[in-house]
Design a protein that fits this description.
The protein is an alpha/beta fold. The protein folds into two domains: about 1-75 and about 240-403, Rossmann fold; about 80-215, OB fold (Dihydrolipoamide Acetyltransferase, E2P), CATH 2.40.50.1070. The protein is about 30% helix and about 25% strand. Helix 4 (about 45-60) packs parallel to helix 12 (about 365-375), helix 5 crosses helix 6 and helix 10 (about 315-325) packs parallel to helix 11. It is globular, with a radius of gyration of 22 Å. Bound molecules: S-adenosyl-L-homocysteine. S-adenosyl-L-homocysteine (SAH) binds near residues 235, 287 and 314. S-adenosyl-L-homocysteine binds near residues 234, 235, 236, 270 and 336.
Length: about 400
């Protein structure tokens, strides 16, 4: 395939083989990509894509700082450790796949170039079992039928696999035999969970869950710390690139062992628990109940004693800290795509940390939040884009902001 010329200076910087390994000339080569719409870069090579992402980060951050060259993947395929398949019925056949972009029409997918390969095999087995067990798939229009989704999470470092069966009612006919048959074909599955979603909603998971087999969660290891992950908790979907991103975040934080650190939007505790070894104490805050439960468990299981967790809105929590006059030396923040809010940012300014390490999955909201912080006496030192989501339009960035 002939590559488009990459014109801009910032773009060219993104394509060096030295930095981005051998994956740079790869293409997507997927038969369903056009119909499914999940991947933004269908016709470009991986290096053209990296150049585009570099440009996007540069465009949003250029008023503030130098943007380092993006770190891509050596092998930009099959990286997703979380795989979701929606089930439906078409011409007398059980199908599973993904919603066509912007619709609720199911596009059948048998193999996806960015999903864990084993997970796709398991989804295929579930399709086959639904046929032999004569289980009806759920119809979103009428609300009839039982089987809605399968969600599979894989611990890349541990090999553990969780299969979540999402049904419209708690009763799965021949439950024990179904679980037995699934495990027989895939002895590598370490836990199976039944999740009930009886609402007309586009959310995949419902609230009620029962464990059909195993512990009900998986574990994975990131930067030497072991994490428990349940079905509902946020966990980064690309293991290789997450380790690169978090190592960069730790480098930016420059911890010496004396600092009081805040980990805001902490999820299952990842960043704070990795930082704890080199900090005096860590205060972590997160909104999601299940994630906080996992985080507390993770601290104990790793024997980490200098981290405290709070379940709260990060903005409200930081305001309370600021009002009580608590100080912090380093603040890690890793908000969702919408970015942070003024309650949070103004409190960070009041806590007055020496350094802020901002991990962002959206360069637009990152740029917006940096604008606020730079008006309040902070300077952005540098930013490192990391390609966490090859073939999609998304790009992750970590930025160092200091006084
Ligand atoms: N740092 C974690 C999670 C990052 S994702 C990791 O790297 O794995 C963003 C997290 O922010 C999610 O866990 C989400 O539940 C949480 N979140 C979203 N809005 C929030 C808010 N207003 N206050 C606190 N946490 C919030």
């Amino acid at each position: 395939m002939k590559e488009k010329r990459i014109k801009t200076k910032e773009g060219i910087k993104a394509v060096s083989k030295k930095r981005n390994g051998n994956g740079t000339s790869a293409t997507l080569n997927c038969r369903t990509a056009k119909k499914c719409g999940g991947c933004r870069y269908r016709t470009e090579t991986y290096r053209e894509q990296l150049a585009e992402k570099q440009k996007l980060v540069y465009a949003n951050l250029k008023p503030f700082c130098k943007v380092e060259e993006i770190i891509g993947m050596d092998n930009p395929y099959y990286y997703r450790n979380k795989v979701h398949a929606v089930f439906s019925y078409e011409k007398g056949q059980v199908i599973s796949g993904t919603y066509k972009e912007g619709t609720h029409q199911v596009v059948p997918v048998e193999k996806c170039m960015i999903e864990d390969e084993k997970a796709d095999e398991i989804v295929g087995t579930v399709r086959k079992l639904l046929r032999s067990f004569k289980i009806k798939t759920y119809d979103e229009d009428t609300g009839y039928g039982l089987f809605r989704h399968v969600l599979i999470r894989t611990g890349k470092a541990t090999g553990q696999i969780m299969v979540v069966l999402v049904l419209s009612s708690p009763i799965l006919p021949s439950k024990n035999n179904f679980v037995k048959a699934l495990r027989k074909e895939h002895p590598e599955i370490t836990t199976i969970v039944l999740n009930v979603n009886d609402k007309k909603t586009s959310m995949v998971l419902g609230e009620k869950e029962t464990v059909l087999f195993g512990k009900g969660y998986i574990e994975d290891v990131l930067c030497g710390v072991r994490f428990r992950i349940s079905s509902q908790s946020f966990y980064q979907i690309n293991h290789t690139q997450t380790e690169i991103l978090y190592r960069k975040a730790m480098e930016y934080a420059g911890l010496t062992g004396k600092e009081r650190v805040v980990d805001a939007y902490c999820g299952i505790g990842t960043i704070g628990l990795i930082a704890a070894e080199n900090a005096k104490e860590v205060i972590s805050v997160e909104l999601n109940k299940d994630a906080i439960k996992d985080a507390i468990y993770n601290a104990k299981a790793n024997g980490i004693k200098n981290v405290r967790f709070y379940q709260n809105d990060a903005g409200k929590f930081m305001m309370q800290m600021a009002e009580q006059g608590v100080k912090a030396d380093v603040v890690f923040m890793d908000p969702p795509r919408a970015g942070s809010d003024e309650a949070f940012l103004s409190s960070v300014v009041r806590l007055s940390p020496e350094r802020i390490v901002y991990v962002s999955c959206n360069p637009v909201t990152l740029g917006r939040d940096l604008k606020y912080l730079t008006k309040k006496g902070y300077q952005v030192k540098k930013a490192q884009p990391v390609d966490m989501f090859p073939w999609s339009e998304h790009v992750e960035t970590v930025a160092l902001i200091s006084k």
